[in-house]
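hi!! sorry for the late reply, been swamped w classes. u asked for the two structures so here they r. pasted raw, havent cleaned anything up. first the sequence of the first protein and right below it the tokens
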Amino acid sequence: MAKKFHFRLQSVLDLKEFKQKLLMQDLADLLQELAQQEQKLAVLRSSLYKAKKDVRQALVADINSLKIKLFHEYIDYLYSSIAKQVKIIAGLKKDIAQKRDQIREAEKEKKVIAKMKDNQFIDYKKEISTKQQKDADERSVQKAASDKGGPFHGKFYSY
């Protein structure tokens, strides 16, 4: 019975696969966070649009200056919040790009080791095939040698 194939770097390959899965999970988390932050930005922009509309309506309705001042302060706050939100989103997009680069690098490392494993397995199969062929040849030679010592050794008969 031939020995079973064993890849010496299997634990390293497993570790690379595990690392890649963790990176993929991190990327998924970042993408989810990006979607949430983009939703917040959309809400802020919607609020800004509504606040500007309310100011225009208030100016037509001839309200007091204190209320208009509060509207403008609120609008300034929304602009500030939007700017902060845009920075947060830009940071998340940068983190996502870095995470994708890390995933590509991890994939390359895993492929190198997987290719080594494939090559070693091919070599293993060739070695086993060579051994089996050698054993078969040896048995054939032994059988032929035992047949030569039989009762009809060296004689040809025609029927």
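now the second protein. again sequence first, tokens right under
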Amino acid sequence: MLNLKNCMSLKKLALMTPVAAFVISASSGYSNIAQAQTTRAPGLPAYARTPSPRKAALPDVERVARSQNLGEIFVATVKHLSITESGSRYALPAFKFDSRPPQQRPTGKPLITAWGVFQFNRDAWSSLIPPQARRSRQSWIPRGTAGCGKAAGCVFPWDSTPSEEIILPIQKYAQIFSEVRSSGGNEIDAARGIRLYHIGSGIYKNWLRFARQRNFNVAWRNVNTFDRRGRNLRGRIDKHLRNAGVIL
């Protein structure tokens, strides 16, 4: 069962959004605790939860995704995203995770803070927490510290309950899915929007702006032009959606 601290966090979460919070146990996904990773990633604080076994989060991901009432394509897209990002594991640090200060990291190694079921990093996670709520978080750092550029400061993804780890990203994906649909896109366009946002919010915004000006078919044909790094976003994302059963 949830302890008092997690119940308080869920209460705050319910106040933050109109979607009812699900009760996800603090020990969710840890029934086979012997399989959990116990080696602490560089810079990860002692209070951060240890990773769960593979696919331990998948039932909760599906349950929360279905609660958004956006259809099977949304559910399939979100479930597959959790698998490709973390193996649908709770509390998983990124493969090259290192949140230590610059002077403690190997020369040339960047700050890497992606963590959790959906692998949100510090800045992406901070955008999910209302500015007025960030300062009360244990991991809060002020603007200008360790590269944080947000006026209300930054917080880290491991400073979360299991419920928040799943619910907050899925609510963001639901917002994106609905935004694309209300802009004239179909469900596949909306699924592509979720994947684009996960690669980069700026890429997603530029693609959506172009789609609104022209149409979604033209925007998708030109999606690679929105990436300064020259990646094949169209091929990469459509491969994921085929594997998820969203497109043929």
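hope this helps!! also noticed smth abt the second:
Residues 162-182 form the longest helix (21 residues).
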